[in-house]
Amino acid sequence: MVTVVPATISARALRKSYGQVKAVDGVSFEVQPGEFYGILGPNGAGKTTTLEMAEGLRQPDSGEVTVLGVPAWPRNQKLLKRIGVQLQASSFFERLSAREQLQTFASLYGLPASRADEMLGVVGLEEQAGIRTEKLSGGQKQRLSIACALVHGPELLFLDEPTGALDPQARRNLWDLLRQINAEGRTVVLTTHHMDEAETLCDRVAIMDHGKILEEGPPAALVRRLDQPLRISVESGLVGADAARALAEPDSVTDDGVSLTIATHDPGAVLAGLADQHALTGLRVQGATLEDVFLNLTGREYRA
Amino acid sequence: MSMGSAFRSLSRAMFLGFVRDRAALVFSILIPVLFLVLFGSIYKSTSTPRVSVIEIGRVGLLDQARSPQLNKIMTITKATSPAAALEDVRKGTDDAAVRQQGNTLVVRYSIADSTKSAVVNALFSSIVQQANLAATGRPPAYQLAAHQVEDVSLKPIQYLAPGLLGWAIASGGAFGAAITLVSWRENKLLRRLRLSPVSTGSVVTARIGVSVAVALVQLVVFLAIATTPYFGLKLTASWWMAVPVVVVGTLAFMSIGLLAGSIAKTQQAATAIANLVILPMAFLGGAFIPLDFAPNWIREVSYVMPLRYLVTGMQNVMARGLGPVSALPAIGILLAITVALTLISIRVFRWDDI
């Protein structure tokens, strides 16, 4: 017996132009219930416009997008109650405390003010409840804005660059929160240009550029598909460059005086050879990352 | 269902945002009140100019004419010497020097201040005529009864209070709407609200409600200060009609702010546009310079200034003692301005910067 679960988001052949610029040029994707889905792309790739069409903020020129089985356009108040959107850390009412922000957002969804304290607990901001949002740290603001997006218990959560300008501790802390939200069964759609973030959080990612999806799949599968050599490095001086070249058929061998690095598609043979020669001190094995996939697809050229 | 609660909590959020904003409080309440106190004190005693007269030697006619009414408008000091007295008149320390030569009253005055020189001339010619009349020993055959068309209590405060209040309400409405719109667009709160099930109507009405409440607070504060005995504002019978004038005035100036905020990309630009509109209006629309005393060209220009209608509408019912109906043309014009500007704003409005 097969039960067909409808996709949480189903976008078909979305197109949107601003004047001569084709911001989104034929984008189709599906997000399944409970999935953590990432949309990656350089600035101007069209990810924001794609997201705006999925959120029901913009009408596609052509194509259609359904969210939770309902067309996203036109603006549908019933649908908006089932989705949560986190925009930026600063999308707050001026001069309100963390608790007052949450109370205000709760009431927009017809929920009692008591919901605010519950949400402060979820994102760990109980101690900051009475502090005005302008005085919160960057990480605290992000947590609060996620709490505001979650206040009505949405089935689907959109996150736009959630860890923008956070320090490494705050980022990891926030990742834990996002994983927890996803583990509760909520579908999460994330846009980011932090590849490590997408790699650790997302079940599947779509890489966009010039208004099109270039590649889509689980991060690990995309990395594997790239078929880049593995980079094995050990301390310099343990084994000569020529001996290293003889180990298997490495793609390249370099020695910068600190580390000897062997790039290879046959890591087993190289590692076994190095082990035979007791030359494993300082061993590091680096594979390709999502960032390599991304740069490979979108190019290394700097775009402002 | 949740419309009411959303509206209430949005109003509360915006109201808290306002009262916690010191700059907004200073600009909408404190500075207008300071202007009122300042202008009110300056113009307090200038309704009839007082003249100071130096008496050289003994002036019998003057002693004869002395009465409490005369003392109210004329101060008399004795001269130390005739030369010093003339010097004082030349310098403007005193307005006239007077001495009596037989049956002739000799008055020396300066034309530097035309109003005062006119008062001095009129005053002394009336003193001489009264003396002549008294010399005939007969009752006067003709009498003059002169009355001001305005309420006798029409002191400067009667113009100043509605004028400055109009300016305060205009700035509050225009800046409030413009800055809220631009800052909410900038920080994406506008978009966030659009992604919640709340209706645009609730957001707009909540914002209007807060601005109208602030304007009514301005009205109460102004009336409380201006009606103290020190300033002496006398509210006329239909003063309550100022309340609807204040409400539609707030709407009209919020629509100016809405247009400024729709056109402007940044808060600075929105503030600059609102200033550019409001400040000239304060001078040309009867707020700082009462139109009754303003040069003709200002009076003509004032007809295109929305502020004129807010100020004159309030003056008519608060200070001039005209009936409630006298405020209706102003209310109509302010409503028309609101509708026209809001329609234009809807065309140029953006939810966010693209």
Instruction: Write out the CATH superfamily name of the largest domain in chain A.
Output: P-loop containing nucleotide triphosphate hydrolases
Largest interface: A-B, 31 and 29 residues
- Strand-pairing-aware structural class of chain B: alpha/beta
Tally of separate domains of chain A: 2
Question: Which radius of gyration of chain B do the C-alpha atoms yield?
Answer: 28 Å
Q: Largest sheet of chain B, order of strands side by side? A: 2-1-3-4
Total separate domains of chain B: 2
| CATH architecture level-2 label of the largest domain in chain A | 3-Layer(aba) Sandwich
By secondary-structure content and strand pairing, the structural class of chain A works out as alpha/beta
Question: Treating each run of at least 4 consecutive H or I residues as one helix, how many helices of chain B?
Answer: 14
Mean of the pLDDT scores of chain A? Answer: 90
Largest sheet of chain B: 4 strands, mixed
The level-1 CATH class of the largest domain in chain A: Alpha Beta
Strand order of the largest sheet of chain A: 6-7-8-3-9-10
Measured distance between first and last alpha carbons of chain A:
52 Å
Helix-strand pattern of chain B, N to C?
A: HHEHHEHEEHHHHHHHHH
Description of the structure:
- The complex is a heterodimer of chains A (304) and B (354).
- Chain A has two domains: 216 residues, Rossmann fold (3-Layer(aba) Sandwich), CATH 3.40.50.300; 59 residues, Alpha-Beta Plaits, CATH 3.30.70.
- Chain A has eleven helices and 14 strands.
- In chain B, helix 7 runs parallel beside helix 10 and helix 10 packs parallel to helix 14.
- Chain B folds into two domains: 232 residues, no CATH class; 86 residues, D-Maltodextrin-Binding Protein, domain 2, CATH 3.40.190.
- Chain B has 354 residues and is of the alpha/beta class.
- Chain B has 14 helices and four strands.
- Chains A and B meet through helix 2 and helix 3 of A and helix 1 and helix 8 of B.
